[in-house]
UniProtKB/TrEMBL annotation:
<protein>
    <recommendedName>
        <fullName>alanine--glyoxylate transaminase</fullName>
        <ecNumber>2.6.1.44</ecNumber>
    </recommendedName>
</protein>
<dbReference type="GO" id="GO:0008453">
    <property type="term" value="F:alanine-glyoxylate transaminase activity"/>
</dbReference>
<dbReference type="Pfam" id="PF00266">
    <property type="entry name" value="Aminotran_5"/>
</dbReference>
<comment type="similarity">
    <text>Belongs to the class-V pyridoxal-phosphate-dependent aminotransferase family.</text>
</comment>
<dbReference type="GO" id="GO:0019265">
    <property type="term" value="P:glycine biosynthetic process, by transamination of glyoxylate"/>
</dbReference>
<dbReference type="InterPro" id="IPR015424">
    <property type="entry name" value="PyrdxlP-dep_Trfase"/>
</dbReference>
<keyword id="KW-0032">Aminotransferase</keyword>
<dbReference type="InterPro" id="IPR020578">
    <property type="entry name" value="Aminotrans_V_PyrdxlP_BS"/>
</dbReference>
<feature type="domain" description="Aminotransferase class V">
    <location>
        <begin position="102"/>
        <end position="416"/>
    </location>
</feature>
<dbReference type="GO" id="GO:0005777">
    <property type="term" value="C:peroxisome"/>
</dbReference>
<dbReference type="InterPro" id="IPR000192">
    <property type="entry name" value="Aminotrans_V_dom"/>
</dbReference>
<keyword id="KW-0808">Transferase</keyword>
<dbReference type="GO" id="GO:0004760">
    <property type="term" value="F:L-serine-pyruvate transaminase activity"/>
</dbReference>
<dbReference type="InterPro" id="IPR015422">
    <property type="entry name" value="PyrdxlP-dep_Trfase_small"/>
</dbReference>
<dbReference type="InterPro" id="IPR015421">
    <property type="entry name" value="PyrdxlP-dep_Trfase_major"/>
</dbReference>
<keyword id="KW-0663">Pyridoxal phosphate</keyword>
Amino acid sequence: MAPSRALPRLNLFKDHFQLHDHTLNNTPFSTERSSIAAFIKESESSPEHSRFYSTSLKLFDSKSKEEALKEKEVKMSNQEEHAALLIPGPIEFDDAVLQAMSHFSESHVGQPFVNVFGETLTMLRKLFQTEDPASQPFILSGSGTLGWDQVAANLVEPGDEVLVLHTGYFADSFADCFETYGIKATQLKAPIGDRPQLDEVEKALKEKKYKAITVTHVDTSTGVLSEIKALSELVHRVSPDTLVVVDGVCSVGCEEIAFDEWKLDIVLTASQKAIGCPAGLSIIMASGRAMKRLKARKTPPGSYFGSWKNWLPIMQNYEAKKPSYFATPSPQLIRALHTTLTQVLSKPLSERFAVHKAASQKIKKAVADLGLKQLASKPENQASAMTAIYLPEGLTPPQILPTLMKKNVIFAGGLHKEIATKYIRFGHMGVSVTDPNRKDIDVAIKALKEGLAEVGYTGPK
């Protein structure tokens, strides 16, 4: 091991055996060893807990550690006290991810950072479930919206036709992005809370030749989940030259996406949602077929910063652990992404998807028990990442959201322009769902019930 990396690693090992002054990471690997340290540190710094401290020392003489822990709720995070952020992104972040953001400044072409970036790109292949060497991951500084620009700038050309499946606000925006690049976008719309049906899609594909079809896997404005596998099978059967483009900004990391098996061409996402990293990274997985489309362009890509002809050699070099440069990445954000991907991939993805689904079903049952309805009324249309909830008649978001805020819970208002004043959105992704020590979901359900009662809602009649 290189000396520059050996010392930090030795320090990490040392921290495992220190009882005091230990940084609580709030991860599956740190929770167990941090519990007693948290007791002592809190008692030493807070007089109001001194009586508990002296009592707990006696408890440890006669009780197991687990029994003693039941006597007091232990703070499992070093983050400043704050309301639980339960919007459809950004989400709550794990302490270790935030700590990675405080990494000292380093060269973006230095070998230590290049190694981390390369490992991160390789881990993305596992997250998207692709083993095809022709697939290509991209990580660019930007938001999920930059993913739209990359698709429009690199894979279709001015005058081309694309079909945009509409399940809410973000289909409108993706279509607008295409139009900005001189591309003709046709939208196939569904009623609010629903998704275009496969027979409708088949009919549209047979009527006109489209270079690409786009689908928002989870539309953050409505909470509608689209069926990706069956859609891709349909496209490959009816219009095999049409690229299958998935907007997975609100689905990657919490909904099943099998890139190779489902024969997807593009899945684009962002760092700040279910992946669990602070905002600032646009993340894409592109198929070998998509890369061939890039190389076959008749015109140059329509963007300079977003041009894959500029970024492709950089990404390939980084993954091969070779320094390369086109534009400066964010070393801190890449390190944070590396940290969260390491956590995500420490368990089977199937377990992660199942945990999100179970939490979602719990929330949706609570919503129904309150006599409220979802925008996505059909179970097959309901996302695991979030729930869009119609408010009781006569109630608007500005009337309920401040009440929830006072209860230390932050939900989002409506986003769909036609019904924005009629509903709120509850995001449930990442550590708020996967960390068993966090009570964000239970607190939010309780706050919603109490908050509605405080503004005059009496529940189902």
